[in-house]
Specification:
The protein is about 70% helix and about 0% strand. It is an all-alpha fold. It has two domains: about 5-125, Serine Threonine Protein Phosphatase 5, Tetratricopeptide repeat, CATH 1.25.40; about 185-265. α2 runs parallel beside α4 (about 70-85), α4 packs antiparallel against α5 (about 90-100) and α6 runs antiparallel to α7 (about 130-145).
């Protein structure tokens, strides 16, 4: 997605600033021995014209034919970017990781880490699917923040971490609601507590507290229900979830409802 790739494009311009000329319009990705500048320029020309399927292999060819040239270092990262743009995220990750393994202290290392994180982020699936990629995205985005906290990439990573956390919380809520519908109250509570404890700043926290109130009453422990409803009232006094929890407590645990109401006001 080009919108999400905007921070990457700025770095691309810097990486390719040394390339000049229009490139060879007829070059193929088959092996043809070429001087490094002509080969790099041809790859850059393909990228500029949106021919991503040829651009990435041509950047790879720069490294293959001229592995010890400074152009090879640039080509590794440009290859990763070209793969990212054509949504070949696994190859983009591999190319960026290869760059980091060979040039860990390079000034463009922050960009490589960010590109890896974005390649995972773009693959995040719906909440009804396995969330392994989502967790990998979170790990990679967190790594960008940890290593380069003052960079422009860290600022963007922080925003995306919030979205990823919301996604993971949504997955726990979906599973928790499934267990609740099946009458598996304890398993449901584990999921809802995970949201409250680990994703408390997400949009799902209020519902999780309500569900904990609900499942605690189902388990016959109104004191626990009162505790969760009180926390809900203290933190989300005007929310629909607090109103539902208030009605639930009034119906099933009226002796505790007054204390919950006092906290919600």
């Amino acid at each position: 997605m080009y919108l999400r790739a905007l921070p990457l494009l700025a770095v691309t311009a810097a990486l390719s600033a040394c390339a000049s000329g229009g490139g060879d319009k007829g070059i193929d990705t088959a092996y043809v021995a070429r001087d490094v500048e002509s080969l790099y320029t041809a790859a850059k020309d393909r990228l500029d014209r949106g021919d991503l399927q040829r651009a990435a292999p041509l950047f790879d060819e720069v490294e293959r034919q001229h592995p010890y040239s400074p152009w090879a270092r640039r080509a590794q990262l440009m290859s990763a970017f070209a793969y990212y743009l054509q949504r070949d995220y696994n190859q983009a990750i591999q190319s960026a990781q290869r760059f980091l393994s060979i040039h860990p202290g390079n000034r463009d290392a922050p960009y490589a880490y960010y590109l890896i994180a974005m390649s995972y982020y773009e693959q995040i699936s719906d909440v009804d699917r396995d969330q392994r990629i989502t967790e990998q995205a979170l790990t990679a985005l967190t790594e960008v923040q940890r290593r380069y906290p003052s960079s422009e990439y860290a600022a963007d990573a922080r925003l995306k971490v919030d979205l990823v956390n919301d996604h993971l919380a949504g997955k726990d809520m979906e599973i928790g609601r499934f267990y609740e519908r099946a009458g598996n109250w304890l398993s449901a509570q584990i999921r809802f507590r995970n949201v409250v404890e680990n994703y408390q700043t997400t949009s799902h926290a209020a519902e999780a507290l309500y569900r904990l109130t609900e499942t605690s009453l189902a388990l016959g422990i109104p004191a626990e229900a009162q505790k969760y409803a009180a926390v809900l009232g203290a933190n989300y006094p005007g929310s629909e979830w607090y109103e539902k929890a208030f009605d639930l407590m009034e119906k099933h645990a009226p002796e505790a409802e007054a204390q919950v109401a006092a906290l919600g006001n």
